[in-house]
Design a protein that fits this description.
The chain has 334 residues and is α/β, with parallel strands linked by helices. 55% of the residues lie in helices and 12% in strands. It has a nine-stranded mixed β-sheet with strand order 1-9-8-7-6-5-2-3-4, sandwiched between helices. Helix 8 runs parallel beside helix 9. The protein is globular and about 65 Å long.
Length: 334
């Protein structure tokens, strides 16, 4: 049975005499810092001076300094820069300030699980991972709610690591809706698998393949876009609200019958076997090594794939249609 913690299980007073250092004011960092500040915590922010993120942190009322300065002053050091730059930031600045009795915290287990960061044994190493993007973490917090989260303990030098981590989770609003206890390994492996097989990789590949199939058959690209991409949000929203049963209750009987009889033909045993292989590559470190080497080489494949996918017909058609839809708050990548 899963262990889930709520507000009643977390004591925010445990953070009262501790200084929290947020390393990075990006997607997650800005939300954590502001939510903790609103919860009455003392927060320091590390960002590069003169950068847009640094300026945003200053506008939000934070004193901004270097990672090494924040690490020296903070009792809880939270690594919220992107995964690929965390090892460099850790070794160049954070490591020197990570003295006995402090806590090193993460929002994703990648660098601990794959041994890219090896903290000393006399510090707590924990994870509090909100299950949502930073802007939602901040938005829902200001509305009095929050996003669910995960908590994990890698090292418990103080024998109080879980209690302090839960206090932090309460400070950013996650215990308002529930924090699931997990491990660094489980969080890392399920997160990577989910991103690759369904949330990002699987969904986008399925949408593109469906779009291409209709266009190749002679249907208008605009009709294909509406059917294979635009309407997906409507379906996902229904599932988010009430699960698959509620979605099936809400759509037509024709759609529901097609769901039951044709869906398994698309996601067949071959697709399941591919999923198992991708999970194995996550578990044995194949994907991690590939991604680490890709970054060390300057990201040639990644950047080529980004350009190739940005130029796909479905993106061009979608951009034109979104621009014509009144009332749609469209967001385009810069």
């Amino acid at each position: 049975m899963a262990t889930i913690y709520y507000d009643r299980d977390a004591d925010l007073s445990l953070l009262k005499d501790r200084t929290i250092g947020i390393i990075g004011f990006g997607s997650q960092g800005h939300a954590h810092a502001q939510n903790l500040k609103d919860s009455g915590c003392k927060v320091l922010v590390a960002e590069l001076p003169g950068t847009p993120m640094g300026e945003q942190a200053e506008k939000a009322g934070f004193s901004v300094s270097s990672a090494d300065d924040v690490a020296k002053k903070a009792d809880i050091i939270v690594m919220l820069v992107p995964d690929v730059v965390q090892p460099a930031v850790y070794h160049s600045g954070v490591e020197q300030g990570l003295t006995a009795g402090k806590m090193l915290m993460f929002a994703h287990g990648f660098n601990i699980h794959f041994n890219q960061i090896l903290p000393p044994s006399d510090v707590d190493v924990t994870m509090v991972a909100p299950k949502g993007p930073g802007h939602r973490v901040r938005e829902l917090f200001t509305e009095g709610s929050g996003v669910p989260g995960l908590v994990a303990i890698h090292q418990d030098a103080s024998r109080k690591a879980k209690q302090i981590a839960l206090a932090y989770a309460k400070g950013i609003g996650c215990t308002r809706v529930g924090v699931l206890e997990t491990t660094f390994a489980e969080e890392t492996e399920t997160d990577l698998f989910g991103e690759q097989v369904i949330l990002c990789g699987g969904v986008t590949a399925l949408m593109k393949a469906a779009f291409e199939t209709l266009v190749e058959a002679g249907y208008q690209p605009e009709s294909a876009y509406f059917e294979c991409m635009h309407e997906l949000k409507l379906i996902v929203d229904l599932i988010y609200e009430g699960g698959m049963n509620y979605m099936r209750y809400s759509v037509s009987d024709t759609a529901e019958y097609g769901d039951y009889t044709r869906g398994p033909r698309v996601i067949d045993e071959h697709a399941r076997q591919t999923m198992r292989q991708i999970l194995k590559e996550v578990q044995d470190g194949t994907f991690a090594r590939e991604w680490i080497l890709e970054n060390k080489a300057g990201r040639p494949s990644f950047l080529a794939l980004r350009k190739q996918n940005a130029e796909h017909q479905v993106e061009q058609v979608g951009k034109e249609l979104r621009a014509m839809m009144k009332g749609l708050k469209g967001q385009e990548a810069s």
